[in-house]
Automatic annotation (TrEMBL):
This is thioredoxin-dependent peroxiredoxin. InterPro entries: AhpC/TSA (IPR000866), Peroxiredoxin_BCP/PrxQ (IPR050924), Thioredoxin-like_sf (IPR036249), Thioredoxin_domain (IPR013766). Its EC number is 1.11.1.24. SUPFAM superfamilies: Thioredoxin-like. The keyword Glycoprotein does not apply. Thiol-specific peroxidase that catalyzes the reduction of hydrogen peroxide and organic hydroperoxides to water and alcohols, respectively. Plays a role in cell protection against oxidative stress by detoxifying peroxides and as sensor of hydrogen peroxide-mediated signaling events. GO terms for cellular component: cytoplasm. It comes from the Bacteria. GO terms for molecular function: thioredoxin peroxidase activity.
Amino acid sequence: MTTTPIADQVADLREKVAEQLPAEALKVFGAEQAELAVAEPPSGIAEPGTPMPDASLLDVRGRPVTLDQARAGRPAVVVFYRGAWCPYCNLALRTYQRELVAELDERGVVMIAVSPQKPDGSLGIVEANDLTYTVLSDPGNRIGRALGIVTRSEDRVLHAQASLGVDLTEVNADGTQDIVMPTVALVDDRGVLRWIDVHPDYTTRTEPDRILAALTETIG
């Protein structure tokens, strides 16, 4: 297991991104990140102890599957991410693969990643990062809305993304620009939400050691 926290990896990534982005886009994203860094999680986030929301999702081949079916009666670490276009999401999902999957397997816990993107985007992020865990698409962010973690970037950010070739209306399965705040939810074997960690700032993520500690405390 690496000892490099996601936060330190993100710091390195931000330096590389700053060197590659056009100045105008960098200015827009920098202002957005400064605002999000002091933002509080929204009200209305699902409470631990309530049933984990479920919906008809799509696997990487576009086949329908529910979250409950993907869990198959097992406890789960469910990671909500923005999409394959987000470099911070790729970094986090790679880190979870490297640092969590083997430990979760030993505990009988399944990892599932969910985003609003089309199945081909899910397949792309699996192949690009050699992910062995389940990656699903949630058209319309139905689970994300039920959890209270759906958001949408301001127009200036969407325009900056479009200038770089990222059009969320083309990326997302429902054709909208809605995304989820990066979130980790722990679900027990009965489908009950036991813990949730929401990050309004998309450059920050739940560290692997915090996930394992929460898993031990809430599910065992």
